[in-house]
């Protein structure tokens, strides 16, 4: 199946192969992807576990289709790949040989997926660092200063009783704070405070109307 696709990706498209071998398009797509990975391993000299494959096929009673005779003189997939790469029109083959799903543009432009993945990786790291900084924000993790009523303990305290194992208390700060939850709670508290202030002002105005000041 893989050899047929590499010999002629247009006439032996994924849909055509699925109809020919009575498989789903997704299954054919997965087979071509795995065979592309296998071909890459062969080119890099990685040893394949063919003995395990033969044993499983024997146990499961798998039938292998007879190899179709291809009259194309460029039947060797590697030679065909080299020729197609020089002609810059091997997008269909590279779909399964470059080990990612994006078809490469035929005009020589760089593919989008690798750059997008790298951008997403950097963005995730940036968001993680911002979240860690927010956990140390005094608004979400108030800093308690020493005074007469409260003396802040050390960052690490070890307590041990006679005949028992020591217990270590460690101040982890805001490590386990859910920043989003804290933001919602702070916003809710501010909203309640504003609502309380509004009701207090309305009550004061209402009381003032009921009991207007008398002129002396």
UniProtKB/TrEMBL annotation:
Q: What would be an example GO MF term here? A: structural constituent of ribosome
Q: Which PANTHER family match?
A: 37S RIBOSOMAL PROTEIN S35, MITOCHONDRIAL, SMALL RIBOSOMAL SUBUNIT PROTEIN MS45
Per the UniProt entry, what species is this protein from, by scientific name?
Answer: Pleurotus eryngii (Boletus of the steppes)
- In the UniProt record, which is one GO cellular component term? mitochondrial small ribosomal subunit
Annotated stretches, region: Disordered: 189-216
Q: What is this protein called?
A: Uncharacterized protein
For this protein's source organism, the top of the classification is:
Eukaryota, Fungi, Dikarya, Basidiomycota, Agaricomycotina
GO biological process entries: mitochondrial translation
| InterPro entries hit by this protein | Ribosomal_mS45
């Amino acid at each position: 199946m893989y050899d047929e696709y590499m010999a002629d990706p247009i006439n032996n498209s994924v849909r055509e192969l699925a109809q020919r071998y009575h498989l789903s398009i997704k299954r054919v797509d997965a087979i071509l992807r795995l065979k592309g990975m296998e071909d890459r391993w062969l080119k890099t000299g990685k040893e394949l576990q063919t003995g395990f494959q033969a044993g499983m096929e024997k146990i499961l009673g798998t039938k292998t289709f007879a190899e179709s005779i291809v009259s194309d003189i460029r039947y060797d997939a590697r030679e065909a790949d080299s020729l197609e790469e020089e002609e810059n029109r091997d997008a269909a083959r590279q779909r399964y040989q470059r080990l990612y799903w994006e078809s490469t543009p035929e005009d020589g432009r760089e593919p989008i997926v690798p750059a997008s993945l790298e951008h997403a990786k950097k963005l995730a790291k940036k968001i993680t660092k911002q979240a860690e900084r927010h956990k140390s924000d005094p608004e979400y993790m108030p800093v308690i200063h020493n005074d007469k009523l409260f003396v802040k303990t050390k960052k690490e305290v070890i307590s041990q009783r006679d005949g028992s194992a020591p217990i270590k208390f460690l101040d982890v700060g805001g490590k386990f704070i859910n920043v989003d939850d804290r933001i919602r709670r702070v916003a809710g508290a501010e909203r309640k405070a504003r609502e309380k202030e509004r009701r207090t002002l309305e009550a004061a105005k209402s009381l003032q109307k009921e009991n207007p000041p008398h002129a002396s």
